[in-house]
Amino acid sequence: MDELKVSLCRPSQICEGVSIWEWSISALDEGDEASKWFTNYVGKPSRLVCFNEESETRHVDPNYASGFRVMFSDGYPFLVVSQESLDSLNERLQEPIPINWFRPKYVSVSTTLVHLRLGNKYKWRFFELHLTN
Fold first, then answer.
1. Which of 6, 18, 37, 109 is the most exposed place for a label (fewest CB within 10 A)?
2. CA gap 119, 70 in Å, rounded
């Protein structure tokens, strides 16, 4: 497939009716070349858009992270997935799935994170990120 190059400059064309979950917004459209590339790749009509911070605001539920905003995610500023959880899931599936199906922003490769067990959910006391090359 041909390479797609997208300018880092802010697009000026507005795309109305962009749907994310049950939410509909206007976004900035990256143009027809990007649309054609994604349409060919996905196999159905597609547009590449970026969040329009001038006209749209989405706040995170204050019960989880008061004062934070999200853009195209489903309501939380980041998603962390552990490699160990994916490995465990893949042991149960006929065909393994890749981690990118979950669209994580961060992938944990260690189960040594400190957490508190609350009911059926875990709440992390802290999260430390170490970047590697």
1. 109
2. 27
> What pLDDT was estimated at residue 36?
93
pLDDT at position 103, please? 74
CA 117 – CA 84 distance, rounded (Å): 18
Q: Is the pLDDT of residue 38 over 80?
A: yes
Q: Give the integer Cα–Cα distance in Å for 70 and 72.
A: 7
In 1-133, which residue ranges form alpha helices assigned H by DSSP?
32-42, 62-65, 83-92
Name which residue leads in pLDDT, 114 or 130: 130
CB 33 within 8 A of CB 4: yes
103: amino acid identity, one letter = R
Question: Are β-strands 121-124 and 80-82 bridged in parallel, bridged antiparallel, or unpaired?
Answer: unpaired
Contact 129, 105 (CB under 8 A): no
